[in-house]
Please model this.
Amino acid sequence: MREVNGELKVSKIKNGTVIDHITAGMAPAVLRILGIEQGCTDTVIVAMNVRSQRLGFKDMVKVENRALEAETVKKIAIVAPQATVNIIKDFAVVQKIPVELPHELIGIVRCSNRNCVTNAEPIPSYLVVENREPLRLRCHYCETVIEGTHASVLLL
Ligand code: CTP
Ligand code: ZN
Model:
């Protein structure tokens, strides 16, 4: 890593995915979503609290040889609504996808109400996105409201 014009430059990757503009401090949540944990053998580069022109400070996660599924991108949108997913092929950015939260989250975030039907029966959770930033979700079944970073601990 080196610093150029006050911006931190992190090694480029050859093939894989770069998740950029992650809300500062949220890289560990993104790693959890990606299933990257102790014993992982993939090449992963993580930067936390680095300078960003757009956000002031940001986190970044680069994973070699990994493509993300649509469900994974939705989960990232919950913990880092400003994130950009960059697909890298042979060192070039071939696709840049801003993450976007859909209007409804089905089977993505668990309802926080223990007595909710979705926690008792094999029924997928169904949360309506009432507001994106700050995040506000409401359960379609029991009307429980889930706000902000609390959603990240309820990810399925
Ligand atoms: N990147 C990488 N390896 C590559 C190519 C790009 O790790 N082979 C990273 C860059 O370091 C950057 C991100 O992927 O963090 C997006 O690359 P690029 O679009 O070239 O950068 P910017 O124009 O700065 O992106 P943005 O406009 O999204 O801020
Ligand atoms: Zn509920």
Residues 111, 113, 116, 118, 139, 141-142, 144 surround zinc ion (ligand 2) (CB under 6 Å).
